[in-house]
Design goal:
The complex is a heterodimer.
Chain A: E1 16-21, E2 24-29, H1 34-40, E3 47-48, E4 55-56, E5 69-72, E6 75-79, E7 90-95
Parallel strand pairs in A: 1-7, 3-7
Antiparallel strand pairs in A: 1-2, 3-4, 5-6, 5-7
Chain B: E1 2-9, H1 13-24, E2 29-32, H2 61-74, E3 78-81, E4 84-89, E5 95-99, E6 102-113, E7 117-119, E8 132-134, H3 135-145, E9 152-156, H4 160-171, E10 175-181, H5 190-198, E11 203-205, E12 207-213, E13 220-225, E14 238-240, E15 244-247, E16 251-253, H6 256-260, E17 265-268, E18 273-276, E19 289-291, H7 301-318, H8 326-340, H9 347-356
Parallel strand pairs in B: 1-2, 1-6, 2-3, 6-19, 8-15, 9-10, 9-15, 10-11
Antiparallel strand pairs in B: 4-5, 5-6, 7-16, 12-13, 13-14, 17-18
The chains are: A mainly beta, B alpha/beta.
The structure holds flavin-adenine dinucleotide (FAD) and FE2/S2 (inorganic) cluster.
Flavin-adenine dinucleotide binds near residues 15, 33, 40 and 117 of chain B.
Keywords (chain B): Oxidoreductase
GO molecular function, one term (chain B): oxidoreductase activity
Protein name (chain B): FAD-dependent oxidoreductase
Amino acid sequence: MRVYEHPILDFTREKKIKFTYNGRELEGFEGETVAAALHANGIRTMRESIHLHRPRGLFCNIGNCSSCLMIVDGKPNVRVCVEKLREGMNVMTQKGKGELK
Amino acid sequence: MIACEICVIGGGPAGLMAALHAASLGASVVIIDRNDYLGGQLIKQTHRFFGSKEQRASERGVNISRELSFAVEEEENIKVLTAATALGYYKDGVVTVEKDERFLKIKPQKIIVATGGAEKTLPFPNNDLPGVYGAGAVQTLVNVYGVKPGQRVLMVGAGNIGVIVSYQLLQAGVEVAGIVEAAPRIGAYWVHAAKVVRAGVPIYTRHTIKGAWGEKEVEGATTVELDDQWRPIPGTEKDFDVDVICLSVGLSPLTEILWQAGCAMKYVPELSGYVPLRNVDMETSVPGIYIAGDAGGIEEASAAMMEGALAGLSAARALGYSASDFNSRRANILRELENLRSGPVGEKIRKGLKKVTLIERQEFRVLPLSSNF
Ligand SMILES: Cc1cc2nc3c(=O)[nH]c(=O)nc-3n(C[C@H](O)[C@H](O)[C@H](O)COP(=O)(O)OP(=O)(O)OC[C@H]3O[C@@H](n4cnc5c(N)ncnc54)[C@H](O)[C@@H]3O)c2cc1C
Ligand code: FES
C-alpha cells in the first residue's frame, strides 16, 4: 500500500531491495524503515505481547514506545520503526521477551 | 569521551535553532538526534503553517526544517550526530549516547535539552490492536515514507493535529470515515477544519471512541455520543467499518533526561505534563542545563524555534561568548516570544508558563565559566 500520486510530495524511492519476513521473501526500498516496508507489504503486526500474547503493531513510529519490537538478524528488541531496511535482512515476529544470547 | 562546549539533545526546530545561535556566538556545539535526519516533527508537516503573525506562518514545515538543517550542516562550529540516542545523564555531567550499536560518552560544559514530545494514548477496549496509531505516526508513515497505514481511518480528536493529519491522509488517497471529538467544539483552526468537512469528512463533536474490534488487527470501531457531563449516552453507539484508528489526543513533553539530571519538575496541565522549572533564559534549576521547545511544554514550532534561539544564546553567553549585538538579539527573541503568546490564543500557554518560570524579568546573569553541574 504505497502512495504513488500526491499533490505536494514527490516520493523518490531509492534502490529496490529484498528482505525476509518470517521466512517469506518481500521487497522494500533502500532508505525506508523496516516498519514502513512491512506496511507497504500489508503487514501491520510486529510482535506478540509478553503476558497475554496479543498482537502488537506500530504506535509512535519515532522510536519512543517499544510497541514495534522485532527480531532482526537474530537480534531481539529492535525498534523497527527507526531501523532502516538493509538488503537481505531477516525480520521475524518477536514473541514475548527477547532473549539476549 | 567526546568533550565539547555545548551538547544539544534533539534536532527538531528547537534544537536546530539552539545550535545555530550558540555557534553564531562562537561556541562549539554537538547536536544529537535519534533519527537519521534532522528536523524533528517538522519534517513531515506538509501543510502551510498556522501560527500567529509570526514571520514563518504560511510556509510549509518541511521547508523550514530543510533550511535549518542545511544551515546546521554548513556551520563549522556544529558537529552533527544523527541516529544517535541520548540514553542517560550522569552526576559528573556525562551524557551517554547509543550510536551504531556503540556506547558513546559526551562531556559537555552545557546541555540544551530539546527532545520534543510524545503522543498520548487513550484507554478503550482493544486499544492495543495493530491498526491503532498515534496521529504523528501515521503522518510519518504517509508523508515521509509514502506508505499507507490502511484503507479507511477513524480519527479521534479534532484539534489541529487530528484535522491536519486527516487532510493529509486524504491527499495520500486514504479514506477518512470521520473525526470524533469529545469536546463540544472543534479545537482546530477553522480554515483547516472547513477544508476537511468540504472534502466530505464528517466531524462528530461530543463523541468519543467506545472500543475497537478485530481479531488480529483493527476491523472496526464503535463510537458513542457524550452528554454535557461527558458521560456516554446509551443507545447512541455507531459502528465504523475502518481498519485504522488514529489517536490525536495530545502530546506530552519528553523529559527523561531532565528527571535524571535532578531538574526541579512540576505538573502543569496547560503545558501538557511534567515540565522543568526554568528562568527566562531557559536554564533549569540545574545550572548549565537548558531546555527549549516541546520538551519544556507542548506549544508550537514557531515558539520552539524562538526558545531554542534563546537557549542557544544563553548557553553560549554563560561560556563567556558574546557579540556586540547580543543584548538586542536577546531582546528581539523575547519580544517575538511575547508576541506569539499574546492574545486569547496564547492564554493557556501564558498561564502554564507563569507556574514554571522562576524569575519573570531578570537581567542576564553571567554564570561562572566553570559552573559545576
Ligand atoms: C501533526 C502535527 C502538526 C503540527 N502543525 C504545526 C503547525 O502548523 N504550526 C506549528 O507551529 N507547529 C505545528 N506542530 C507542532 C510542532 O511540530 C512542534 O511544536 C515542534 O516540532 C516542536 O519542536 P521541538 O524541536 O521542540 O521538538 P521535535 O520537533 O519533536 O524534535 C525533537 C527531536 O528530539 C529527538 N529526540 C528525542 N529524544 C531524544 C533522545 N533521547 N536522544 C536523541 N534525540 C532525541 C527527536 O528524534 C526529535 O527529532 C505540529 C505538530 C504535529 C505533530
Ligand atoms: S512504534 Fe513506538 S518505538 Fe516503534
